[in-house]
Amino acid sequence: MANIIQDRAKAITAEDLIRRYDLDSLKTDRKNIISIRSTLIKQYTIIKEFVINISSYRYESNDLITWFYNGTPTIDNEPFTLFENKDDYLGNLYYDRETGKAYQLLKDEDYYWQELDDYNLIKSLALANGEADTADNKRRIFFDEPKTPYEIGDIWLDGNTIMRCRCARSEGEYNFADWIIQDNYSNDLYLNDTRAVLDQFRITVEKDFVTKVQLETTKDSITASVDAITTEIVTTATAKYEYYDEQLAEIKVNVGNIKLEVSDVQTSLGEKITDLDSKIDIKAGEISQSVEDKIGGLETKITQTAEEINQTITDTQENLESKITQTSSSLTSEINKKVDTTTFNSRISQTESSIENKVSKGDISSYVRQYYDQVIYGFNNASSVVKLATSGISLYRSGSLRVNMNENDLIFYQSGYTVGNIGTSQYAQDSSQKGLVFQLDSGGKYMGWSQRSSSSGSYTLIMAYNRSNSIGHSDEGIYFGRNVYGNNWNLYDFNINSARANNYEAVDNKNVKIVTDINVDEKGNLIIEKASINVRSGLITSVPENSESI
Fold this sequence. Notes:
By secondary structure, this protein is an alpha+beta fold.
């Protein structure tokens, strides 16, 4: 390696160093240190009161963040909209810089900011708001050993000691060296030591470096340097030429060895392999590769075009085949196995907007098809399908919607008609009264209750509401197909048009004459007073006016 001799610099005096490093400013620095000391003591007092008042509002987590923003906090503005997992921020405090009010994030059925009426807390928040380290709109306090991430300015209440983060760490384990004791800033001994070190440095420069840095540059030293450099260049050039000759000879030997190795490879590839065969076929627009193990019964094929890549692995001994097909817009993987005469198949198909998983055994299959707004579960595509969507859970049969369930109703469909629903409702005249309702839609003709006597029998209608001219009745109404027992309960406000009693038809539209009174006058004549009652559908509907209540 050539020796390089640089020009020697002129002498450097102590005055040069003092001017270059601005050592005269040390006097000003000492005044600044005293001013900073006072500021740090004030800041420590503010932080100490802040930590004490905040501690009583500690929630369930290890840390508590106080946010400083303008305006009343809601769940629709910052910082709440910045929270990813909202529960992690429960207990956080908020200081409104405009009004000076304090709030805490709580949760009942939903999240909300609770205004706090705590004078000491509000006072501490107001003082903390004026500090520079709230420029990011927040302060974080750890009550136990900190966990990452933490930032410069974060506070850790370690027992009765207030620690302050001086080195941020976004991930990994907490490091104690990242934290310092907050009140060390106000330590007089530390400030005095700093002042002493700076003064000693100035004295050293002024006294010890006055004449020791002087150097000379002479003609002889420059000449000697030039001669040494020239000799080094000549020696280096000669050595380099010898090195290049050696390298060239070695390269020639290596080239000869490579030729021998290539020849051996060509000979090996030209030999006939009995049980293993591999092929590569390249033609316009397509590349095909195949490897076949005739003993193991395995065969692998890859076909690639500009639009599609197909990969297939076949195990003829196990009757297994797996395939992967890939295009620019889809990816499909499939596995088939044949056991006796039954074929088992599983398939996963993926596009930019959907994913489908399908499993089959013979003619029976089930599948799950997923889109961004719904998930469909089905069997054999055209039979039973369950769809989960934002509108509820729907059941389809042979492509036709049969049932839909949402947060309010269970809705039934038949042959394209909405038949009716079962759900919750409220009384129109008083919304505070809730209830369960069975509702027949305009597409439904009747609502019935049926029963059957055996598991193999058919259902018989025993009570029904039906519309006019439906299920064998011309009139709208409720029809009974079995006896009705009242168990001595009353029947009110009915208009009976026809009735029977013990299979006897009741008298209808009859006027019955009755004797209401019999008297004898002064001459001994018999006087008979008469009246009448009316009978309709077996019930007496009118009596004489002078009849008495019983």
